[in-house]
Amino acid sequence: MTESTLRIATAGLFVVSHFLTLVLVGALYLKRGFTFEETTTTIAIIAPLFAGYTTLIVKHIIANRNRKSDPSTSPIQSGLFVFVSLFIPVVFICVIVSMVLVRAYNAGISDFEQFKILLGIVEGAFAVYVGLIINALFTTPGNQGADRYRDEPPEV
Amino acid sequence: MTIDDIETFASDYGLEGLSGRNSEAGNGIVFSVPVRTEEAWVFTLRRFPKIAEATRIRADVVAVHSEGAFATFIVSNDRPRAPLSFAEVRQSLERTLVRTEAFLNATFRGKGNVAPLKKNPKRISVEVSGLRGEVLKSEGYWEKLIIECIFAPDERRMDFFINITGSYATGAGSLRPADDSFDDMDQKYKNPLQSFADKLTVELQNALERN
After folding, report:
1. B140 and chain A: CB distance < 8 Å anywhere?
2. What is the rounded CA–CA span in Å between residue B211 and residue B207?
């Protein structure tokens, strides 16, 4: 898999799951899985959790909005890097979504305080790994991801 | 009232396990009742012809570093009281007790589980669990109610009192929430709970007077 393709996959995964998770929390509020106070607290915890990564991705996309990436010229990434880059974010998102569903459906987390603590633990456990992957894909030394296109003429 | 009268009274209403003792003044008796039901009991006891006066008394406690030990009680005491509703019927006590149990089972059949908590000669206490949107109709949460029915018969009529303690919990599916995830209703939903107690009282009165 090329770097460009991997970047698109990871960016799509994070941006889509960021907003879908918030929509899911809202939908579960309508189904009485959360009280209003619990809904706002959950959103207040989850939104910054994703926003830290989504911001870097969106910033990269905006910085390169006039560049058309060409997968054929993009460097091929090692299989292990591709696996880690997709596996860890997918597990991270699945764990967050599962916790929201488990809490809303009373399938294991009985107390909202427990839920908040668990979200904090998951955030801490995954932050280092997900942060490294996002940094590797969406920033480059010197100029936050836009440097590699500096020598190419902008498309008109 | 003699001591025997008091003991009979306490036994009739299931107060024997609630550490009744003579008051310091020596002319009355002090009962401990569950927190949040004090005012309901005071109101109920005042309606009994043999009781001259019933009041809630303050318990003074002197302790060092007692915040941890008493925190739960302090919070509970600051909360609104459990709602009380009452009515009168012209029925015998025996008939009323049988009909009340039947009424509670019929009212919540298909909506939740009715489990008896206490059954004394003049008091029935049940826990109704597994309800959904019964008291808080617009909210649709899981609900759990403890319904106390206290009967005060005399020669011509019988007063009955319904005291309800309610709690609620969230849950999107059909799995019932764990006991510790329920929050008290009377903090936030006192008015719907009072309305529900009033409605249940009217329905029970109608059921008792129906031939």
Report:
1. yes
2. 8
- pLDDT tens for A74-98 read 788 888 999 999 999 999 999 999 9
Give the CATH number, domain containing residue B159: 3.30.530.50
Say if residue B54 is in the same domain as residue B92: no
| B contact test, residue of A32, A35, A115 with most B CBs within 10 A | A32
Q: Contact A32/B170, CB-based, under 8 Å?
A: yes
Residues B95, B197 share a domain: yes
Of B139, B141, B180, the CB nearest to A111: B180
* B147 bridge partner residues: B126, B164
pLDDT at B109 over 60: yes
pTM over 0.80: no
Contacts of B196 (CB under 8 A, 6+ apart): B134, B135, B164, B166
Mean pLDDT in chain B?
Answer: 82
Indicate if the alpha-carbon torsion angle A123, A128, A134, A138 is positive or negative.
positive
Expressed as residue numbers, the domain containing B134 is 83-209
Interface probe, candidates B136, B168, B170, chain A, greatest A C-beta count within 10 A: B170
Question: Into how many domains does chain B fold?
Answer: 2
Q: Are B33 and B90 part of one and the same domain?
A: no
Tell me, yes or no, whether B47 and B89 share the same domain: no
The shortest C-alpha distance from A41 to chain B (Å) reads 15
Q: Residue A143 above 50 pLDDT?
A: no
